[in-house]
């Protein structure tokens, strides 16, 4: 977020699932560029995922259903 601010960009940080929709709504209403920084646990897998150095056609899709945790509620 500090880098975005250094370039004069507006943005928001998302730390919980409940913050996603308000962040996207704010971005859609913003004039100009708006940065959303999604903070996830290192162990979390975000799908679809393109491995480092791979092409888009090598995208990895979710292999298992989404698992909700107590922190998501």
Fold and architecture overview:
- The chain is α+β, with helices and mostly antiparallel strands.
- It has one domain.
- It is built from two helices and two strands.
- The protein has a two-stranded parallel sheet with strand order 1-2.
Summarize the structure.
This protein is of the alpha+beta class and 73 residues long. The protein has helices spanning 2-6, 20-29; strands at residues 10-14, 34-38.
Reconstruct the topology from this structure.
Layout: H1 2-6, E1 10-14, H2 20-29, E2 34-38
Parallel strand pairs: 1-2
Number of domains: 1
> Strands of the largest sheet, in order across it?
1-2
Query: Strand portion, in percent?
Result: 5-15%
Distance between the termini: 25 Å
Which value, in Å, is the CA radius of gyration?
15 Å
Q: Which shape, going by the Cα principal axes?
A: extended
The ordered string of helix (H) and strand (E) elements is: HEHE
**What percentage of residues falls in helices of 4 or more residues?**
10-25%
Mean pLDDT, to the nearest integer, reads 82
Tally the helices: what do you get? 2
Quaternary form: single chain
Largest sheet: 2 strands, parallel
Beta strands, count: 2
């Amino acid at each position: 977020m500090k880098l975005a601010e250094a370039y004069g960009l507006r943005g928001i940080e998302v730390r919980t699932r409940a913050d996603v929709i308000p962040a996207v709504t704010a971005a859609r209403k913003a004039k100009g560029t708006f940065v959303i920084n999604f903070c996830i646990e290192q162990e979390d897998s975000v799908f679809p995922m393109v491995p480092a150095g791979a092409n888009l056609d090598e995208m990895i899709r979710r292999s298992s259903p989404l698992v909700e945790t107590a922190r998501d509620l």
